[in-house]
């Protein structure tokens, strides 16, 4: 994200030059100092991301009070750090310096058919890279799939997702699929797998990475039109989890979708479709799951309305827990309309509720969501602050 800021801000390309100078032999003692500005809102957690060139590895960012935050720079030049308690109107000065690589706080590694995520040695979630064992013998093989997140945990280790629930076998933790589509004269349904007209496959795993600030997985999916025996859509999945100092688990899901050939995929107006969340099995029943949106709506009046974020929660092992889904303002139809099920713990940001749209050849459609899990009831002010940080990231400028 290279941007040139006015009123004293300069581009991150100059930031890159400063970092390069810092690590060059002739300027080993150069000082690199930056300001991070949070804007007009408090940020309990600020995920700061910017792009640099020719720099990678582990860094430290030390502020004027001596507080240290880890910073990691990927081989592609994406720099990341997570700051705590960035106040409204605050300009936080940071001195950046190379650091000896420490043991990653976010560890992502292969565990059988899963990519397992751990943060500070706590299980966080898992991505299904391949089809694993079916949970029950009575499930038809037509429902067998990979390419989704489950289990997903709170910081306290309590489960907040479900997989292959008996009343909706095609629901899988956090997953994505389109429902009512048109493609080359056919109508494949990639969501309702039992109809046998479409499915979503994992075609490759591009990368797994761990780090002091973040770790993740990047994979390729294919939307297969079974009647036409062809691929309709290619989808890139990227899941990235962050280490924070608050009792929260935070991770991003970004989807890039593009047609597989010269034919558009048309999405008809429909109740659901896109990114879905299936909550814990104990939350089945009208009285067992609670929903809360950024607009203050609940299960009673939230369905088919729009919201920046939505909380889904309930009781697990005697404790109240929850997961919130934050939608990015760049998403189509943002703030997107929602499917909130009247009696099951199911949530879906459903842009197709707003009417028909198309994914056309030669274009890439991006969908961005941030997820937060927590122990205890939802904190609307905190969730709103986290959404602000997701939608309007803190700005970075160079000082020296």
SSE blueprint:
Elements: H1 12-23, E1 32-37, E2 43-51, E3 57-63, E4 68-73, E5 78-86, E6 91-98, E7 106-111, E8 114-119, E9 122-128, E10 149-152, E11 174-177, E12 181-182, E13 198-209, E14 214-225, E15 230-242, E16 249-259, E17 265-267, E18 274-278, E19 290-293, E20 309-316, E21 319-327, E22 338-340, E23 346-349, E24 357-359, E25 365-375, H2 380-391, E26 395-398
Antiparallel strand pairs: 1-6, 1-26, 2-5, 3-4, 3-6, 4-5, 7-8, 8-9, 9-10, 11-18, 12-17, 13-14, 14-15, 15-16, 16-25, 17-24, 18-23, 19-20, 20-21, 21-25, 22-23
Descriptors:
eight-stranded antiparallel beta sheet, mainly beta, 400 residues, 2 helices, globular
Structure report:
This protein is mostly beta strands. The protein is 6% helix and 44% strand. It is built from two helices and 26 strands.
Quick overview:
By secondary structure, the chain is mostly beta strands.
End-to-end span in angstroms? Answer: 21 Å
Radius of gyration: 22 Å
Main sheet summary: 8 strands, antiparallel
State the low-pLDDT regions, or none.
1-30
Strand order within the widest beta sheet: 13-14-15-16-25-21-20-19
How many DSSP helices? Answer: 2
The average pLDDT score comes to: 91
Element order: H for helix, E for strand: HEEEEEEEEEEEEEEEEEEEEEEEEEHE
Structural class determined from secondary elements: mainly beta
Please provide the count of β strands.
26
